[in-house]
Automatic annotation (TrEMBL):
Keyword match S-adenosyl-L-methionine: no
Residue stretches spanning the membrane: 12-32, 53-74, 94-116, 123-149, 181-203, 215-233, 318-340, 352-372, 400-423
Organism: Marivirga lumbricoides
Name of the featured protein: Cytochrome ubiquinol oxidase subunit I
Membrane topology note: Multi-pass membrane protein
Keyword terms of this UniProt record: Cell membrane, Electron transport, Heme, Iron, Membrane, Metal-binding, Transmembrane, Transmembrane helix, Transport
Lineage: Bacteria, Pseudomonadati, Bacteroidota, Cytophagia, Cytophagales
InterPro entries named in the record: Cyt-d_ubiquinol_oxidase_su_1 (IPR002585)
PANTHER family with a match to the protein in the record: CYTOCHROME BD MENAQUINOL OXIDASE SUBUNIT I-RELATED, CYTOCHROME D UBIQUINOL OXIDASE
Length: 446
């Protein structure tokens, strides 16, 4: 059990760090390409400077994501050899394609970073689009592999053996679309609000206001649209989980007893001994509607799940509540931005308005981590849902605890290095990209 705890803790730590780096790598290139497009269309040097500033951030997170992703691939083999022995041939295709997308992203990023004034201006812009599309494809392919763990497909399981393997069917399993859509929107919402919050803080400091205001608008539009679309994705995911993983849905909602017109819980602390939820607000019939589109439908509770197959309810429920709660706050701020842009732009110059977005900077990241907690903890005790238990997949190798310490040190070091590099980049903006700099140059694109 100690080995299992150490292995799971190490994997949780690694994924917790990598998901942040990966999401930034998926989303930031689109911000960069948008500002670049605006520069090419208008000749606005603020947009050009913003593009160059963001491209340096993209490069930093590309390298960091490559390091953390490589470490994760080693950890899969090191910590879960039994899992990889059987699962590798089945769901290896998305990982192989992810490697291809990664190399395309690396080449395109090199073209973009060093292509200023060397390529045709629209080809140069297109290389930035390729960076974004390939980064997004990498993320979707990895999520497809994770979705396979939740919805195994593409093989027959006979006498303890995995036969008749179909990698294409495994990659396009029943869960890949809903998980990929939900993850993509979550990434855009999280990064959009984080970037907008940073630039809102710079606006409060009255530094390079035009530069930071243009950056704020691009980021919050992406983040706001994603946050407003996320509930639709969440609805699709809930209905999918209700069909494929009823135990996970029951743990998410702390739904202990099977019932019709099942209530949706807001908040609450589950008590797994008494099978009750304290301090929760109940909305009658809402869980039945969320799961099956019918307020009278029956929702399976944990009472129909064998005890040895039940996920940890407390962790799963709290993580789900955190994810949904923060998502609702981000939706409210998105509506505030779009309403103010439409009706009252004077609000956007007020300190209280900017402070709201500064305070929202970490919300998307916290929601991301909570969402992955729901996905992974809610699948327990299975590593391959319904086929292989997590305890049967862990390595028998001694000394996993020391491996956990080493990997922890590496990820913490990476975080400090990235924080330092980003701080230096943000601090350099007022001097490197001064308002009016390059005014002697032509105001038309090169």
């Amino acid at each position: 059990m100690e080995d299992l705890l150490a292995a799971r803790s190490q994997m949780a730590l690694s994924l917790g760090f990598h998901i942040i780096f990966a999401c930034i790598g998926m989303v930031m290139p689109f911000f960069m390409a948008t500002s670049h497009y605006k520069y090419l269309k208008t000749g606005d040097l603020h947009q050009k400077n913003l593009t160059k500033a963001w491209s340096k951030g993209v490069a930093i997170f590309f390298v960091t994501g490559a390091v953390s992703g490589t470490m994760l691939s080693f950890e899969l083999g090191l910590l879960w050899p039994e899992f990889m022995e059987h699962a590798g041939p089945i769901f290896g295709m998305p990982f192989s394609l992810e490697g291809t997308a990664f190399f395309i992203e690396a080449i395109a990023l090199g073209f973009f970073l060093y292509g200023w004034d060397k390529f045709n201006k629209w080809f140069h812009w297109f290389t930035g689009i390729v960076v974004g599309v390939s980064g997004l494809a990498s993320g979707i392919l990895v999520v497809a592999a994770n979705a396979w763990m939740n919805s195994p497909a593409g093989f027959d399981y006979v006498d303890g053996k995995y036969i008749n393997i179909d990698p294409v069917a495994a990659m396009f399993n029943d869960a890949w679309f809903t998980q990929s859509l939900h993850m993509t929107l979550a990434a855009f919402a999280a990064i959009g609000f984080a970037v907008a919050g940073i630039h809102a803080l710079m606006l409060l400091k009255n530094k390079n206001k035009q530069f930071h205001w243009k950056a704020f608008k691009i980021a919050i539009v992406y983040g706001g649209i994603a946050a407003l679309l996320q509930p639709l994705s969440g609805d699709l995911s809930a209905k999918d989980i209700a069909e494929r993983q009823p135990a996970k849905l029951a743990a998410m909602e702390a739904h202990f007893e099977t019932s019709k017109s099942a209530p949706l819980l807001i908040g609450g602390l589950p008590n797994e001994d008494t099978k009750e939820v304290d301090y929760a607000i109940k909305i009658p019939g809402a869980l039945s509607f969320l799961a099956h589109g019918d307020f009278e439908a029956e929702v399976i509770g944990l009472d129909q799940i064998p005890e040895e197959d039940q996920p940890p309810v407390l962790i799963t429920h709290i993580a789900f509540q955190v994810m949904v709660g923060l998502g609702m706050i981000m939706m409210a701020l998105s509506l505030l931005y779009f309403f103010s842009h439409w009706k009252n732009k004077n609000w956007q110059t007020k300190r209280w308005y900017l402070w709201l977005f500064v305070l929202a900077t970490p919300l998307g990241f916290i929601a991301l981590e909570a969402g992955w907690t729901v996905t992974e903890v809610g699948r327990q005790p299975w590593i391959i849902n319904g086929f292989m238990r997590t305890k049967d997949a862990v390595t028998p190798m001694p000394g996993i605890f020391y491996s956990f310490l080493i990997f922890t040190a590496v990820y913490v070091s990476l975080s400090f290095i990235v924080t330092f590099l980003l701080y230096r980049q943000i601090k350099a903006v007022p001097t490197t990209y001064e308002e009016g700099k390059d005014q002697k140059k032509a105001l038309t694109p090169q």
